Amino acid sequence: MLHPSYHDLMSTVNSEVEKGETPVVNSRYSIVLATAKRARQLIDGVEPLAKANCPKPLSVAIDELNESKIHILSEEEINTMEAKKAQEEAEIAAMAEEVMSFAEED
Predict the structure, then answer these.
(1) What does the pLDDT look like over 54-65, one tens digit per residue?
(2) Which of 47, 58, 75, 92 is deepest in the core (most CB within 10 A)?
């Protein structure tokens, strides 16, 4: 059996959701996807955020989720972050263009 249980992990992830709001995680499938994605990040060399009893990446990912070291984002949060990132990239591109035009004037 998985320790902590799926139910415990779902409760932990949804603990920050206000009453009446849609839970971030509605199924075990969401937990599996989130931990698998984090395990792939750990395999790729990202430093773990929690100390696990087992060195396996999936176990570390489960411990991180259980200790609230990582968070599963809702669709709304993902869309907001992507929009913010696109805006920041556009601002950087505009600044780079301005610098290039300034350099060409000299």
Answers:
(1) 889 998 998 888
(2) 58
Are residues 17 and 23 in contact, defined by beta-carbon separation less than 8 angstroms? Answer: yes
In the block, which residue shows the tokens 């992830």? 13
Domain boundaries, the chain: 1-72, 73-106
> What is the per-residue pLDDT across 72-97, written as a single tens digit (0 to 9) for each?
877 788 889 999 999 999 999 988 88
**Which spans in the chain are helix H?**
6-14, 28-43, 57-66, 75-105
DSSP at 52: -
Distance, in Å, from the CA atom of 22 to the CA atom of 48, rounded to the nearest integer, reads 29
* Residue 39 clears pLDDT 90, i.e. is over it: yes
